[in-house]
Amino acid sequence: STCSASMVALHEACVVIDRGYCVSAIVGGTNPILRPSCTTMMSEQGVLSPDGSCKTFSTAANRYTRGEAA
């Protein structure tokens, strides 16, 4: 489903650790932003933060910023 690949990978890692198949796991995910038209569309819809900053748990949060971190 949309945007769930990383969570599915995390769930699978938890399952194999819980079952004793391994003691640790590395889980990762990405959402490559390859087409500028997607960002343009989201900007036109007013979804993206006007200042381009991510303020996840702040009261100053002002919408969404596209990006990835590792």
From TrEMBL:
Molecular function (Gene Ontology), one example: fatty acid synthase activity
Domain of life of the organism encoding this protein: Eukaryota
InterPro entries for the chain: Ketoacyl_synth_N (IPR014030), PKS_NRPS_Biosynth_Enz (IPR050091), Thiolase-like (IPR016039)
Beta-ketoacyl synthase-like N-terminal domain residues: 1-69
GO term, biological process aspect, one: secondary metabolite biosynthetic process
Gene3D superfamilies: 3.40.47.10
Protein's name in the database: Beta-ketoacyl synthase-like N-terminal domain-containing protein
Species in which this protein is naturally found: Aspergillus glaucus CBS 516.65
